[in-house]
């Protein structure tokens, strides 16, 4: 018997009720008993993709399983507020600490609260969120960006990534929403969010040049820095460079490789920019990546007609479910990724 899924996860040409339930089950099948959600069974877990998969579970009404994922984060947080970049079967397999990974718990926590209305959960996860964002903000660079990682020896390269910083901005805004709800003012986050938003929107030269990656194209929109005409211009600028009609979105502009995660995230960004018809098209195109069990292959090399890599990732399924939920009007997903009601942080310019 197929478990019921909310109507927000039904989208013609993408997911019917049985397909949506199967995709949810594909994530649950890989969730570990301790709540951790690795990329796939036997693969590694990173805190960012783990959180994305947890949010997808909440869109499906699997709130207990999502909460278990947040308990995993609370249980594995380092004393300095960070997490390591990768864990496999409970063991640390990449000891660096990536700042966007450490911040993203705020997005998931706010999404879970908006889904459930559970004040007890929010109060319990708040110290985890606060420490994660404090660690991240502590690695600010001049001009607003945030260093993208801290190495095992405690040093941090004085370099920032546009994609990662866009995600951190989103996390800061969600963290400020939690702080406001709990009446725990965080003025340092407000300033950091304002400076970071200005840098992402107006100063691409402050970030490493990763222009060949599609994430650098759409993440300023997905991370809420750009809306309106600015978002529309950005989409138009590189549409033909990254989008492969009928197949999806390239991961990098110079490779014949479309990926499900980037395609679904672009769909979510298109929805946020008011281009829902295009978003639906993208989601329909990537159904060639769907496996019979409801999971999704990571990518497809179209010049070779080959799935690559041969893995089906929880975060690919998670990104697709979140995009469908936004298009379907799911309250929590709309609020978190639409960004209209999230605190913006301080308004700053180049003089501040």
Task: Set out the fold topology.
Layout: H1 17-30, H2 47-59, H3 63-76, E1 86-88, E2 91-94, E3 97-98, H4 99-103, H5 105-116, H6 119-137, E4 149-150, H7 162-182, H8 187-202, H9 214-222, H10 228-242, E5 243-244, E6 248-250, E7 257-259, H11 260-272, H12 276-285, E8 299-301, E9 306-307, H13 314-327, H14 331-338
Antiparallel strand pairs: 1-2, 3-4, 5-6, 6-7, 7-8, 8-9
Helix pairs in contact: 1-13, 2-3, 2-5, 2-13, 3-5, 5-6, 5-7, 5-14, 6-7, 7-8, 7-9, 9-10, 9-11, 11-12, 11-13, 12-13, 13-14
Provide structural commentary.
The protein has 2 domains: 1-30 and 212-339, no CATH class; 35-210, Glycosyltransferase (Alpha/alpha barrel). α5 packs antiparallel against α6 (119-137). The chain has a 5-stranded antiparallel sheet. It contains 14 helices and 9 strands. It is α+β, with helices and mostly antiparallel strands and 352 residues long.
Distance N to C terminus:
59 Å
The CATH class assignment of the largest domain is Mainly Alpha
User: What shape does the CA trace take?
Assistant: globular
Radius of gyration using CA atoms only: 19 Å
Number of helices: 14
Order of helices and strands: HHHEEEHHHEHHHHEEEHHEEHH
